[in-house]
User: What shape does this take?
Amino acid sequence: APDKRALLLTRLSHLAASWGGKDNGFGLSVCCSDEPIGAFPPSATTLHFEFYAEVDKGEEGKGKKGQASSVTVIHVEGLDKMEKTPAKIMEDLLEQFSVPEEKQMLLFTYVRLAHGFSDYKTRLKSVQARLQALSVLIYSNQLTDSIQSLLYSGLLEELVDVLEMKGDHLMDIKAAALKSLTSIIHLDRNPNFPKLNTIIDVTGAASYHGFLPVMVRNCISSLTGGSSTPPLPLPPTSQPFPQPLATALFSFLYHLASYEAGGEALVS
Assistant: This one.
């Protein structure tokens, strides 16, 4: 149903929204690192939410509309230190503030993120949810209004930074990062938002020693059991390539090669 579709896309947009980017201390690779909460700006665990609420104008308003809009600000610091669940915090906020129904899911998204950001495992889940939501929105061609804010300058570099990170526990997030890059390739069909050449640049696809070609060679070496003369010296504890990550990598290559510029970069 169109109504359910619109509701789902709105919620995905909330999940996919930028947290501030690398320039503001929220680069994806930093968020995926097991850093103490003190390494992040205070806004990481602060709820700041503004919305327009209709207030009764009283006697003066009679004969007119009788309603006026005023900005209401909800500002709560240290949500991660509250010994309440996000659902309970949300319940308390709705008792205290008359948040319009269409804004409640956005508010809950903020509450959940600020409440769980200081917990490393929860933060990783939030990163993965954000990347998957972004991919779905792009594939469903629903980014027309929010494309500039969701695909902000520097996002592609941040995705590559995540792929360069070490740690077996990050494999699912790396696969999600590759899927996001794969989906962004197709934005090249939109003449107002070409990203293909930027993806070729940030992944080093056109260079033998670029990040992407090295990753592909390491992946093939890992999947085939390696060889006596690997293409590049690999550390003794070379990370394995789980099937989801390998699948995401080859899917990315397939889609990159389906465009002339991408195919030429890989061949060169």
The CA atoms of residues 205 and 212 lie 6 Å apart. The chain has twelve helices and two strands.
